[in-house]
Amino acid sequence: MSGTDRRGPVTGPAILRTALRRNAGAMAWGTLLMGLYQAGETAFPIALGLIVEHALQERGLASLGWSIAALAVIVTTVSLSWRFGMRILQKANTTEAHRWRVRVADCGLQPVARDTDLKSGEVLTIATEDADQTADIIEVVPLLISSLVAVLITAVALGIASLWLGLLVIAGTIAILTILSVLSRRIGEGTREQQARVARAGAKVADLITGLRPLHGFGGNHAAFLSYRKVSTEAKDQAVTVARASGAYAGAALALNAILAAAVTLAAGWLALGGRISIGQLVMAVGLAQFIIEPLKLFSEMPKYVMVARASAERMALVLAAPPVMTPGTLRPSPGGDLEVDSVRYGSLREVKFHVPAGEFTAIAAYRAREAADLAAILAVNVPPGAYEGVVRVGGRELKDLSVEAVREHLLVNPYDAEIFAGTLRTNIDPEGTGHLVAEAVEASMLTDVVALHRDGLDHGVRDRGANLSGGQRQRLSLARALAADPGILVLHDPTTAVDAVTEQLIARNLAELRRGRTLIVITSSPALLDAADRVLVLDGGVVTAEDTHRNLLATDETYRQAVAR
């Protein structure tokens, strides 16, 4: 289930068109200013030629003064147009990249995942590198047009001096772009593959960081290292391949541009020797031949940037176009807080059926960890209702008919491995700063000793993933966050596996007291929690095989006694 379905472009070309359309104003101003910059740059050698031509004829100080003033105007125009043109374009580029980052992140953070087959590390790479490279199209198009302006002005100026020089520039430019367009396709294909491999390496890093402690526990460090080295080597090799292609492209562009400039210079010299152009026109032609290398280089690199932007846009489309794994409903649960699981079959669950009335503290003793995990995944809506048989009802309504907002308001499943975020103890317990049970949650989860240890109390800093906290402290912090949320139905999955027996006893008593009158379900094998519950359901072999109080089950069920007694 997801919130409002955000409509928009779902293909790479459509993403690029959207970026261009909503930045049309900034690009128009940027193109105008950058075109003025290129025109000023082109005007400089033209002005020099005219000055030489005029000086040879008049030889006066007044003429020299006017010439210097004209050059000053050209230089000022070049400086200001570049400054403000690039400021406009880079602001639009940065803003557009931010928009796409937010949109990709929004898709990745939806309560119900999208069917992308991408890991979190890959989505992160798409939301950063690919968003930036896609937004580069905002600068590429104005720079492409302004470079074309420079080439056309050069061709016209040389064409006025000699038609053959103008035709040489036009023909040479067309030949250069034709050759380089072939190379740019190879770069685009290589870049797409490189980005995919970098994303896979990023996903592997994210997985390794998440599982670092378990890896240390069973000695899997070396195997994990070899696995990461393999994917990172593949990304490196592909990056080298793309770098080689880019180097060949840049070298070819520079060589072809230099050949064209040399051809224009030699042709102008030959025409001047033959008396078909003047000395001033020769100076202009030589100056333009040197100048044209830069806009031609910029102009010839544009196809490469366009291909890279398109490859990145197509990778973003993998996330944006992916459908949600389930279709959300629109209803809300009826008042109350009852939960019903009716004949659910999924994974290790065979025919699970039970009902928890509103306000009851129910414990579920699952003999197998896989069964507990599958049940928690279904209640957390990590498994779409269409992926399992049977029905889950919250407040009398089927889960598939409820909106995601309604589910999150009424039902919270806190996993045993809940994430701890960089920030403070307070921001981890009450992220939005609106909770009214923070103090009670801290006390109930027995987090008071952690708070008391630090001068800053609840404002004590917490590192990413709770790196500066012990396992028990992280678990209690996660439990405090769940309690402070105060949902109508709270499901806790093994909330005390990392705490000592005395603390566990106190937490069990506190949970029963704090959640009195509110529905609480704890999936656990902890005797303390089982004893504090109003009722215990035994989950064995994928079905509920017994239900009673903890003490009655201890007295009458030998299997239960062996499974939970410590």
TrEMBL record:
Membrane topology: Multi-pass membrane protein
Localization: Cell membrane
Segments forming domain ABC transmembrane type-1: 28-302
GO annotation, cellular component aspect: plasma membrane
Chain ranges of the ABC transporter domain: 325-566
Keyword Nucleotidyltransferase belongs to the record: no
Keywords attached to this entry: ATP-binding, Membrane, Nucleotide-binding, Transmembrane, Transmembrane helix
Superkingdom of the source species: Bacteria
Organism: Nonomuraea rubra
Keyword Transmembrane on entry: yes
Membrane-crossing residue ranges in chain numbering: 26-52, 64-82, 140-158, 164-183, 254-273
InterPro entries named among the record's database cross-references: ABC1_TM_dom (IPR011527), ABC1_TM_sf (IPR036640), ABC_transporter-like_ATP-bd (IPR003439), ABC_transporter-like_CS (IPR017871), P-loop_NTPase (IPR027417), Type_1_exporter (IPR039421)
Annotated coiled-coil segments of the chain: none
Protein name: Putative ABC transport system ATP-binding protein
Database matches in Pfam families: ABC_membrane, ABC_tran
A GO molecular-function descriptor: ATP hydrolysis activity
